[in-house]
């Protein structure tokens, strides 16, 4: 039984290793259009079909480690299937072979269903399948006692040893395949050579934007600490030399620009706080950065949108889409085709070589990374990736605020003057934050001091010197936007269009 289970795992490992190796070759040779790795294709197809409740569950349980969780889950399911095939093979070899064929066919179908897939992309899955069938027969013939005349075959201990060897070898081969296919190295080289264009009017961080309390999220978040959210299982590696951005759809004239053309345009800087709609009250799926880019409106103007168009469906190199109101890309706000974040080229994680940044809208309807197409269209005719998955068609950012210091459940000490510093951030992108108040226990709402406003598109820090009494207390925060509207205390989950409620923490004062 153990030998059979090991056999099943050996078959699975060989299928994956051969598939990854061939996928690497297909990718390196430039024959691939989609995702030739069956593992990544199945994972991607699964992600795209994840129902809203499961996505919410994954994000709330695993946070930004949801991809790792998916891979672990896939590995467990796959290992179980392999064990079933291995055990089944002992008595019913044909059934086990058939089951292998079915699984490989499912994987091949997943590959074929990925955006941009070409015939060459399914070759790795098929090659893996053929190798797997051969190994299954071989293992079976070596380990199954076939009658009194059986010549010995392989004993249990040897079989398990061979199995362990094959598993280790397969892991190496699979890793090699990924290394062969990966464009990460050449993309990284290209990235290092990029000089970020100078801008006529650089933005600056006003003195006083930071309230100077330890533990508050930095006013400008470094790229390496910036939150990352996307549906991509591996980070798309897009070479600037082959990158193009096309404007299509309801336009007088289709336009296509390449990387050099983009870089030759007059660039602007804008400070914009990016915000994920999946952010829970008190969550940290947001960040503020200085973005450098060419205004989207300038590119759209070259294409001349036709009357009746009200949406731009932007598409990324990996097929993801966002539906943005045309107006948000053509009015006077700083909507950019961004090439830099905090004056460094974007990292591949954050959309290298180019992405969209639109002040005032959640990322899922605006912030397309690895952007390759802007299709001018209508909300009546098209929808972005998340809309059919239960999220609103439009996603303006809701006014909200967060307590960064202290943390929930902290034990805090009072300073010599009896005070405890409370501090955090508040945002109402493109409208602006004009007030923040805190409430201790059942007390009255009291004004906090705001850091200097850099732009209405960015968050503001706030600080409050709390005259604390010893014991356990709850602290709540709320923000007001420029229209005088206070953030609602009514609680709502992130779906379908952003969470609401006051961030509230408990602390014990010593
Ligand atoms: N290509 C692509 N772009 C994308 C996404 C994605 O899944 N794929 N997710 C969007 C979402 S939901 C958010 S919140 C922002 C996050 O940008 P960041 O990862 O740079 O912080 O990217 C947006 N752009
Ligand atoms: Mo998001």
Structural features, described:
This protein has 510 residues and is an alpha+beta fold. It folds into three domains: 181 residues, no CATH class; 167 residues, Oxidoreductase, molybdopterin-binding domain (Sulfite Oxidase, Chain A, domain 2, Alpha-Beta Complex); 110 residues, Immunoglobulin-like. Helices cover 34% and strands 22% of the residues. It has eleven helices and 19 strands. A five-stranded mixed sheet has the order 2-1-10-5-6. Strands 3, 4, 7, 8 and 9 form a five-stranded antiparallel sheet that branches. Helix 1 crosses helix 4, helix 1 runs antiparallel to helix 6 and helix 4 runs antiparallel to helix 5. The radius of gyration is 27 Å and the shape is globular. The chain starts with a helix and ends with a strand. About 1% of the residues have low confidence. The structure holds ligand MTE and molybdenum atom. Molybdenum atom binds next to loops. InterPro entries: Ig_E-set (IPR014756), OxRdtase_Mopterin-bd_dom (IPR000572), OxRdtase_Mopterin-bd_sf (IPR036374). Keywords: Membrane, Transmembrane, Transmembrane helix.
């Amino acid at each position: 039984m153990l030998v059979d289970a090991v056999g099943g795992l050996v078959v699975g490992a060989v299928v994956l290793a051969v598939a990854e190796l061939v996928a690497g070759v297909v990718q390196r040779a430039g024959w691939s259009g989609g995702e030739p790795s069956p593992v990544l294709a199945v994972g991607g197809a699964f992600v795209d079909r994840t129902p809203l409740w499961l996505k919410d569950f994954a994000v709330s349980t695993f946070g930004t480690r949801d991809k790792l969780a998916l891979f672990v889950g896939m590995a467990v399911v796959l290992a179980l299937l392999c064990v079933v095939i291995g055990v089944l093979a002992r008595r019913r070899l044909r059934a086990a072979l058939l089951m292998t064929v079915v699984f490989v066919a499912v994987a091949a179908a997943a590959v074929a269903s990925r955006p941009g897939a070409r015939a060459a992309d399914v070759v790795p899955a098929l090659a893996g399948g053929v190798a797997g069938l051969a190994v299954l027969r071989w293992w079976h013939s070596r380990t199954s006692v076939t009658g009194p005349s059986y010549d010995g075959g392989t004993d249990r201990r040897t079989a398990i040893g061979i199995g362990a060897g094959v598993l280790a070898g397969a892991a190496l081969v699979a890793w090699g395949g990924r290394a062969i296919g990966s464009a990460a190295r050449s993309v990284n080289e290209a990235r290092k050579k990029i000089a970020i264009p100078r801008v006529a009017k650089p933005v600056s961080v006003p003195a006083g934007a930071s309230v100077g309390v330890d533990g508050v999220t930095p006013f400008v978040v470094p790229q390496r600490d910036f939150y990352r959210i996307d549906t991509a299982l591996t980070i798309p590696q897009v070479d600037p030399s082959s990158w193009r951005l096309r404007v299509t759809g309801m336009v007088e004239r289709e336009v296509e620009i390449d990387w050099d053309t983009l870089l030759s345009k007059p660039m602007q800087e804008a400070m914009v706080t990016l915000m994920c709609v999946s952010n829970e009250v008190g969550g940290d799926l947001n960040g503020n950065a200085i973005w450098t880019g060419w205004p989207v409106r300038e590119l759209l103007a070259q294409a001349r949108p036709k009357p009746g168009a009200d949406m731009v469906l932007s598409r990324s190199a990996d097929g993801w889409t966002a539906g943005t109101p045309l107006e948000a890309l053509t009015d006077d706000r700083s909507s950019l085709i961004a090439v830099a974040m905090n004056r460094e080229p974007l990292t591949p994680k954050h959309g290298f070589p180019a992405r969209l940044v639109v002040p005032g809208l959640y990322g899922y309807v605006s912030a397309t990374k690895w952007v390759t197409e802007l299709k001018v269209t209508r909300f009546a005719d098209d929808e972005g990736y998340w809309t059919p998955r239960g999220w609103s068609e439009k996603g303006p950012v809701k006014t909200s605020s967060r307590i960064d210091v202290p943390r929930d459940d902290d034990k805090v000490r009072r300073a010599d003057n009896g005070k405890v510093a409370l501090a955090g951030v508040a945002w109402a992108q493109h409208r602006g934050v004009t007030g923040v108040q805190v409430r201790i226990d059942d007390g009255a709402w009291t004004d906090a001091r705001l850091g200097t406003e850099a732009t209405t598109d960015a968050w503001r820090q706030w600080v409050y010197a709390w005259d604390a009494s010893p014991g356990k207390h709850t602290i709540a925060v709320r923000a007001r936007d420029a229209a005088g509207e206070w953030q609602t205390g009514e609680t709502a989950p992130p779906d379908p269009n952003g969470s609401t409620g006051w961030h509230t923490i408990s602390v014990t004062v010593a």
